[in-house]
Amino acid sequence: MEVGKLLKTKVVELDQAMIHIKNGMTMMCGGFGGVGSPPTIIRAILDKGIKDLTFICNDAGFPWIGPGKLIVEKRIKHLIASHIGSNPEAGKQMHEGRLKVDFFPQGTLAEKIRAGGMGLGGILVDVGIGTIAEKGKQKVIVNETEYMIEPALMADVSIVYAKKADPYGNLIYDKTARNMNPHVAAAGAITIAEVEEIVSFNELDPESIVTPGVYIDYVILSEGVDWKWPWELQKDT
Predict the structure, then answer these.
(1) Which secondary structure element, helix H or strand E, spans residue 70, and what is its range?
(2) What SMART domains does UniProt report for this protein, alphabetically (predicted)?
């Protein structure tokens, strides 16, 4: 294996990636109902005692899975999501004033995140015109139709979960675990991908790659997965 190729790897140990996750930052997490959220990274956030997060994700997960664990442990102070109904603790904290929640329709939320990843300032929506959703929003007229401007969303750190990665950070997702992850991966100033399997250079079919490695800064392996570089396996035989 050429040394030049080895130097390009984005695969790191969990501790190296966790250096970038700090109290009070804005984080973004992929997944839907906890499926597709990175369990090892979320557990590491809990273990490290990270708190006071502004957290952007599709939903509040369940109390025992995904972002729901962070909510139960009161590590999130501000949640931006499409719904919280699957996590009773989120609703409880919101009504107690412990958790600030900003709701957006699921499609609007996805587009706000996508816009952030694409370098756009925001999107135009007509959902909510004539309701309290208008409060504080700028409006424009396009082709005689009134729209609200929804600012794009970005994060200090995005965390995503994928089925496979190569050392360059190219990602393939597994079925519905793909939900929100590609948008989230693009919208972080730093993006950490937790994966189930790391394959060798040039092993992924380019036509199957969903998230190009240019969006990924670090790749970590899910806890409990036994893995070695292909050339290390050759040494053992």
Answers:
(1) helix 68-72
(2) CoA_trans (SM00882)
